[in-house]
Design brief:
heterodimer, A: 228 residues, alpha/beta, 10 helices, 52% helix, B: 337 residues, seven-stranded parallel beta sheet, two-stranded antiparallel ribbon, 14 helices
């Protein structure tokens, strides 16, 4: 039976390199040989996430590489893991792991948000994606309805800053000031939280994940749940 | 020295009377003149009047013939969303699977979309400034236009999965950059700036920059030179340390470095070529004039005795920037000399 740590290294490498078909083939082969699916997630996919995180921490963040790795990870989850552990897909994320994501009104760029969504899910978060050009009041409404702990607001341009600044007072007016507001995106990362009236300004999605889940990425079941 | 002489002198590495100040100011000039961004991007006269008026007031050393980042995509057939006081944006991609572009036609700068608006602005600016100030016309680079035509996500996957198809799309957008640039040179631009934000290492891995972008930029600038451009300028934002060593081979005279690239490191990596930068753009919105002065002085101090440093912003000065911050920037550059 294959169950050694070394056996999973090629899978980690394939995910990090963004080779989605190879990653699926290797994952399938491992599972068919008796490698436990949960270890595949924990020692394989979350290890790949850790590797990406380390790379981003070294100022080597590259959108295309993250997209390709994320796609490979999703392919393994969809084509190999989900078929074998379908029951876990039904588990609901708790409110403290729920985040409302959207691109703020005045901005229609969504790619950064898509990447964030993928990686939040991979870390066990329930993500409610409001899409693009979202009014501040809609972030607040959705967060209250979902009982979410976080609002993640994205923008590529600085002209949207006045809209972003409205979210915090709206939350306070609704008695929901406990909800953490996180801003991210190419232009916003130049600002500080006070400029945007938010709690966190993230340099990238890994930056946020380190803040929100310091235990990350060793969340076996949470990781699986995120792909439901 | 006139602004024109000062900038050309600095780019050539000869000693100007002081460092030129060339912040990347576009829509902010309209805002400072009380005009709507929608009018700025739609009317060549508004571009020329805004650029001329704000330069006359603040005294920096460049004029830009540029509307927004979507001019090329619109000229190729993309629909844009226009807001009253924001730059337009591409509504939806027009190139679908496999980067099929057989049906697309190259733009005509005298007729396609708003290209005539910007060529008209260029002509008016040249008439107004003559050879007193460099007229810099800006065009989008091949990678960014391709990303707009296909959508960024789809284009990046195409680049990874079907590089030959991506290459054909990039060949087409390279020709688009060339045609538009030629039109702007014919309208009086002294300098051609290629913006290619999607070619930044934050998005495009440096190896793919070397493979797909660098050879295209070389061809583009060679052609711009042969058409009469006096200055060839690349502006790619972000932490560009890994691609700067390729810049001396691109046939360019000047490159912008963003705030993430320290000035001295930029000079070392780019082989000593002329650089423009590197005030953090959002500082023009969030900082106080005194802080902007300190930042400008720090840039110039970091450039040391180099003659080919042009003080500027690491990327576009945001539209909502304060007048006093821009004024403080120019004053600091003039004070340092």
């Amino acid at each position: 039976m294959i169950n050694r740590e070394a056996d999973i290294h090629p899978l980690i490498e394939a995910v990090v390199n963004g080779e989605n078909q190879l990653a699926v083939t290797l994952a399938e082969r491992l599972v068919n040989s008796g490698f436990p699916v949960e270890r595949l997630i924990h020692d394989g996919l979350t290890a790949a996430l850790r590797s990406l995180d380390a790379k981003c921490s070294n100022e080597e963040f590259n959108l295309l590489e993250i997209m390709l790795s994320g796609r490979a990870m999703m392919a393994v989850m969809d084509q190999v893991v989900a078929r074998r552990l379908p029951a876990l897909e039904q588990v609901q994320a708790p409110p403290e792991r729920t985040i409302i994501l959207g691109t703020i009104k005045g901005d229609i760029h969504e790619l950064g948000k898509h990447i964030a969504k993928m990686l939040f899910k991979a870390n066990g978060f329930k993500v409610v994606d409001l899409g693009k050009d979202v009014r501040p009041e809609n972030f607040v409404k959705a967060a209250i309805e979902e009982g979410a702990a976080y609002i993640g607001v994205s923008s590529l341009i600085t002209l949207t800053i006045p809209c972003i600044r409205e979210i915090r007072p709206m939350l306070e007016a609704e008695g929901a000031k406990h909800i953490t507001v996180i801003a991210g995106g190419a232009a916003l990362q130049q600002a500080c939280p006070e400029d945007l009236n938010v709690d966190i300004v993230a340099k990238n999605v890994f930056d946020v994940l380190r803040c929100l889940c310091p235990e990350q990425p060793s969340q076996t079941r949470a990781s699986l749940r995120g792909f439901a | 020295m006139t602004s024109y002489e000062r900038l050309l002198c600095a780019v050539a590495g000869q000693k100007p009377d002081r460092a030129p100040a060339a912040p990347e100011v576009f829509g902010v000039t309209a805002r400072l003149c009380g005009r709507r961004i929608r009018d700025y991007v739609s009317d060549g006269r508004v571009i020329a009047e805004s650029q001329t008026a704000v330069r006359a007031e603040l005294g920096y050393d460049i004029l830009f013939a540029f509307a927004d980042l979507s001019v090329e995509a619109e000229a190729l057939g993309c629909s844009l969303i226009f807001e009253d006081d924001a730059y337009p944006a591409v509504q939806a991609p027009i190139v679908r699977d496999k980067g099929d572009i057989a049906w697309l036609a190259l733009p005509d700068p005298s007729r396609s979309g708003r290209m005539p608006v910007v060529t008209e602005a260029c002509r008016l600016l040249r008439e107004a400034a003559g050879s007193e100030c460099v007229i810099a016309a800006c065009v989008m680079g091949p990678v960014s236009t391709a990303s707009q035509l296909m959508g960024l996500e789809a284009f990046l996957y195409l680049l990874a999965d079907r590089p030959l198809d991506a290459g054909r799309l990039l060949d087409f957008t390279e020709q688009t950059t060339l045609e538009y640039g030629k039109g702007l040179i014919a309208a009086g631009a002294h300098c051609l700036v290629v913006f290619d934000p999607i070619a930044s290492p934050a998005v495009l891995p440096p190896a793919l920059f070397a493979l797909h972008e660098a050879p295209r930029l070389m061809r583009i600038f060679e052609r711009f030179k042969s058409e009469g451009a006096l200055i060839s300028w690349v502006s790619i934002a972000g932490a560009t340390q890994k691609i700067l060593p390729l810049f001396p081979k691109l046939g360019i005279d000047l490159a912008t470095i963003d705030y993430e690239v320290p000035v001295a490191e930029g000079f070392r990596l780019a082989g000593g070529m002329a650089l423009n930068g590197n005030i953090k753009p959002f500082s023009f919105v969030s900082a106080q004039p005194g802080e902007i002065k300190q930042m400008a002085r720090a840039c110039l101090r970091d450039a040391g005795e180099r003659r080919n440093f042009i003080a500027g912003s690491g990327c576009e000065v945001p539209v909502e920037s304060g007048r006093e911050n821009l004024r403080a920037f120019v004053e600091a550059v003039k004070e340092v000399g």
